[in-house]
Fold these 4 entries.
Entry 1:
Amino acid sequence: MVQGLVALVLLWALGQGDYSRSLTEDLLVMLLLGLSLQVMMALGGLVSFGHAAFFALGAYGAALAHLHAGWGLLPALVAGMALALAVAAAFGLVLTRMSGVYLAMLSLALAQLIWAGASQWVGLTGGDNGLIGLQLIAAESRAVFGWGLLALVLACVALLGRWSASSRGAALQALRDAPLRAAASGLPVNRLRYQVFVLSATLAGLAGGLWAAIKGAVFPSAAGVATSVDALLVILLGGVHQLWGALVGSALLVWGGAELGRGLDYWRGVLGLVIMGVMVLSPSGVLGGLRDLWLRTRRGA
C-alpha cells in the first residue's frame, strides 16, 4: 500500500517537465545512497563518516568504463559497482574489525584517500576538471530511464525490507544491539559485519554510477565530505531505523532544498536550521517522531 502510493507520487513527479524530472532523479539517487548507509548503520550497527568513498568509486568506475571501453549504461553501472565492491572487500577486512569512532574516522580517511586520488591522478580521472561528456543515457530514452530508476530504487527498498525481516536480518540486529551477547551466542560477528559492509558499499557504488549517468560528468567532489554528510542527513532526517526514512530524508534534502533555494539567498542556512530543529525535537527522525506521536495518542485514547 505505502509502496504503491510512493510509486504513484514519484511517477507523477517524473512526468512534470524537465526540472521536476531532474529533481526527482536526484532524489532517487540520494534515496539509494541513503539506503546503502542505512543498511550499514541500522542493520550492521556500523557508523561511517566516509560513505562518499564508495559513491565516488561507483561514479568513476562507470565513467571510465564508458569513456575508455565504450560500455553502455548497464555494463558501466556493473563496472562501477564492481570497483566499489572490490575496494570494500579489501578495506573491509580491517574496517569491520573496528567500531564506533574508530570505524567512523577510518572510513573518513578512506574517503579522503579516494578524493585525493581523484583530484591528483589527472591522467586517469581528469583531476579537478573531472570526467565530462558522458552519454550513458540517450536523449530519446530519458523518460524510460526515469521510470527504470524508480523501479530499481523501489525494488531495492522491497528487497532490503525482506532481508531485514529475515533470519539474517534478525542476526544483524542482535549484533547491532548487543555485540558481546551476539558473539557469546555463537554468531559470526566479524563475518556478518564484513558482509553488510560490502553490501552497503556496493549499493553506494550503484548510486554513484547512476549519479554519473544523470549528470553526464564526475568530479572529485563525489568523494568529498559534503557527499558523506548528505548521506548521513538523508537517514538521520527520516529516521535511521525506519525503512522509508531515507525517502523522507532525501525528499527534505532535495525537494526542500530546491524550494528554499528559489526564494532565499541564504537557503542553506535555513535548511540547516530545519535540520537542527528536526534533530532536537525528534532525534529518531521525522518518521520516528510521527510513530512516537501516534503511539502516545493511542495510549492516551
Entry 2:
Amino acid sequence: MIYEIDAVHRHNNVYNATIFPHNVGLGVTRDPNLVKRIGEANALEVRATRIPYVFAPCIAVCRNLRWGRCYESYSEDHKIVQAMTEIISGLQGDMPPTTQNEAPYVSTANLL
C-alpha cells in the first residue's frame, strides 16, 4: 500500500502542525531560501507521521484566473516559479547531523 499526503499547504491535516502560506503568498516573497526552509520544515513534520511521500509542490504557472487553484501557483511569471522550485531541495534535503535515520526526508530525485 502506498500512503501519501497532499501537502501543498504543508502538513495541515495534523494537529499542531505548522501552517505556512499558500504558494501564491510565498511567491510574493521572491525568496527561494525561505521556500527551501519551509520545504525542510514540511519534510520533518511529514516524516514524523511516517508518511513517505507528498503530493507537493505544485510547480504550475497560472496564467488564467478561471483555473480554480491559482493559489497553488507561485506566480504567473515562470522565472519566479523556477526560483521557487528550491522547495524540492528542502523536501528532499540532507539529513541534519543530529538525525538517526539515514533515509531521505520525503522522496528521492529518482521518484520525481
Entry 3:
Amino acid sequence: MNALVHYSPIDFEMLQIKMDDVARRPKDGRVVISYVGALEPRKNLAFFVEVAKKILDITDKYCFHIYGDAKDQESLHYVESLMQGLDSRTLSRLSFKGYVPVQEAIVETDILICPFNNEPLGRVVPEFLYFGKTVIVTDSGGLKEAGAGYAICYVHNSVSDCVEKVLNCSGPTKNIEIIRRKLTEVFAPQGVVVKDMTVYREIGGVKR
C-alpha cells in the first residue's frame, strides 16, 4: 500500500562539514561492514549477525561493526541472546561500537547493511550513499526507495542472497557526483517534506 511519509530533510552540506572534522581510518586491508540502528528485534539485527557468520565461514577479509544502543533491559537481553553460541573467531571480528555520530560511522564503514523490517524510510541509506559507501538493503519496506536507485537490494530475509550481494560488491561507488545530485534533489529540500513512498505489511509471512 502507499502512505504519506513525513521526514525532515537531510542537510548534506552540514554533514559534509562534520565529515571533514573526522579522522580517516588507516588503510589496513580490512573491509568494514556496518549495521547502524537501534539494537532491537524490529531492526532485524539478528539477520546482520547471521550474515556476518556466513561471510566469515567463507573469508576473513571482512570485519563487522554494530553501531547503536541497547536502550532498555529487554534490548540488552536481546543482544546477549544474539551473542550466545557465536564462536571465538566470529566474536573477534564482530564489534559493538555503541552510539556514535553518523559521520563517524560513515568514515569507518565500507559497506552498510540495512536489514530493517518494514521501515518506511531509512535515513542512513542516503547519508551513506552520499559519501560513496556501498549500501545493501532489504527489498521490503521503504529502504529501496530511500536508496533512490543506488542501493543494492537483496531478497527480504534471505541470508544467502545478502551474502552474495556483499561478496560481489565491486568496490567504492562510482559516479559519486551524479549520485549526490540525485540524493540532494530527493532528500535535501528546505523544510519538512511529505513524500509518497511504498509501505509494506507482512501477513502470515507474505508481503502485501
Entry 4:
Amino acid sequence: MPQKEKRKFPRINVNFPIRYKAKRGNFSVKAKSYDLSIGGIRLVSDRLFPLGTNVQLELNILSRVISPIIGAVVWSDLLPYSGKYQMGVEFLQVKLEDKGQIADYINLHALL
C-alpha cells in the first residue's frame, strides 16, 4: 500500500545559500537549501539544532532578501560520511508579502 503524502504544500527542489540562527541566538550559520514550499524548507548545514528549536531564517530569492522568517526544526538527520546535517524547518511566522514572494518563486520554478 503506498504511503500517504504528509506534506501540506507542494515542494520544489532548490539550491541556494541561506543563513539561519536560533531565534534567541547571537550568531548565524550558513546553510544550503534543498527544497522549499510555502510552509517550510529543507536545509543542510554543519550545525544541528535540536528538534523543536525555533530558528530565524534569511532567504535570498528573486534578488530579494526575505527575513526574518521564524520556523521550527521538525526533523533532522546526519548525512552519512559528510559530517553535515539535514533539517526540515516548518515556517511559523512569515510576513504576508514575503509569503507571496516565496509562492511566486515556487510557481516560477515549478513551470521550468
